[in-house]
Design brief:
Radius of gyration: 24 Å
Distance between the termini: 54 Å
Helix content: 40-55%
Amino acid sequence: MPKHALRRVMTATAAAVGTLALGVTDATAHTTPALDYVALGDSYSAGSGVLPVDPTNLLCLRSTANYPHVIADATGARLKDVTCGAAETADFTQAQYPGVAPQVDALDTGTDLVTLTIGGNDNNTFINAITACGTAGVLSGGRGSPCKDKHGTSFDDEIEANTYPALKAALLAVRAEAPGARVAALGYPWITPATADPSCFAKLPVAAGDVPYLRAIQAHLNAVVERAAEETGATYVDFSRVSDGHDACEAPGTRWIEPLLFGRSLVPVHPNALGERRMAEHTMSVLGLS
C-alpha cells in the first residue's frame, strides 16, 4: 500500500478510536452513581414473617424480600438494612438487643437515601389494640363496640402524647447523622377495612363497631408520622389510598396484610410478600426512583 494511502487509513482509524473513546468517556461521565441506601424501622420495614429470613440476624426476623430489598434491587442502590422486628423509635438511638447497634449508627454523611417505618410499637399500640379488640370481639360474639367502650381515647391519647414527640426526635436523629440524605417516612398500610365484614370475623375477630375504631387509631398513628415527617424535612409516603381494599380481610393474592388467624405468614397482622412489594413500588413512585 502506498505511504499516502496508509497514512489516510491510520488517520481515519485514529479518529474513529478517538471518537469511540470520547463516547465511552461521555457515557461514563453521565452514569448516575448508585445510591447509598440505609433502611431503618420496625417489622413492617423488616418484612417479619416473609421468607426468606436474613440469616445474619435472626433476632430481628428480617426478610431478604422486604421492601428495602425490593427498592434496592429495582434501583441498583447499595443497601445497608438494619430494620428489626419489634423496634420502637427509641431503638434508633439505643441498642434494641445485645449486639444490635442503634439503628442510626448505620448512617453517615455519605448516606443518600433513608427509608423507615416506625411508631407502631411505641406504647405497644398495635399489639395492645389488636389484642384488646380481638379479645373483646370474641367475648361479645362480634356485636357492638366493646373495645371502644372500654378503652375510649386511651390509644389515641398515647399516640399524641408519646408517639408523636418520639417520632419527631427519631427523625431528627436521622437527620443529624445523615444531613444530606433524602428521608422517606412510610405510613402503615390498612390493617382493617373501613367497615365490618361479617365474613372476616373468623380471621380478624373484632366486633363490628370496633372495626372502624381500630381503623381510626391507625389513621391517627399515620397522621402523627406524617406530621413528624413534615416538621423534620422528611417525605411522608401515604398508603391510605393505595392500600384501601388490601387489608387483612381480603383474600390471598389481594390482601397486603395477613389476618390474625388462618393467615399464610409466620407473623400475623403484618405485610406479606405482596404487601412488601407494593410498599416498595409506591415508595419508589412517590420518591421518583426507577
